[in-house]
Fold this protein.
Amino acid sequence: MVGEAASRTVATAGLTGAGRPATRGVEPAREPHILYDTFRRAIDVVLSLALLVVASPLILMACLAILVTTRRSPLLIQRRVGWLGHEFWMLKLRTMRDEGESRAGLAAKPAYDERVTPVGRLLRRTSIDELPQLVNVLAGQMTLVGPRPGLPAEVSEYRSAWVRRLAVKPGLTGLWQVNGRSSVPPRRWMALDRAYLQRRSTRFDILILIRTVAAVVSMRGAW
């Protein structure tokens, strides 16, 4: 359990360089059973590698479209806060113009943002912009299912009850992504992340992965 003092430390501490702990006092979440972490890692490696191979032509086409329309690097590398407050560099495809890639602070994503490019809007709707994070999963910085990694500015605004989401590795998808994605307000997605921590298991992770396919196809809440 994360104590109130540790929670306050996590919510208010300054963040350090990538890969170094941003906070102290967050304890790793207990695994549901002894083989859970091993089996989850095996699924992460096998599925992320397979998806990267299958999706590589799609990623390449998206990169070319971004390069032609923006004249900038298609790949965006963002500093994010992951497991136990450690920072890492998260990969994604560029969807915004130069002046507004990173949102400041914890806020709901607007349904329409004029900073998003036309190509970027399509990539967001189809979730193609998130595919490079499969590399983060392979590297062990992320997992397929878990809370989304927050920006440092977002983590600095966490309330004590929200800090617990740092007790597990961040995920490519999660419970709040299959329950509305960007249409879900921050308070609600934090509640869903805490619900995931209480219910996580191999079976539940697989269920979320299956529901993710339906969420991506429907494009509900994707912007």
Q: What stands out?
A: Residues 1-22 have pLDDT under 50 and may be disordered. Residues 4-218 form one domain.
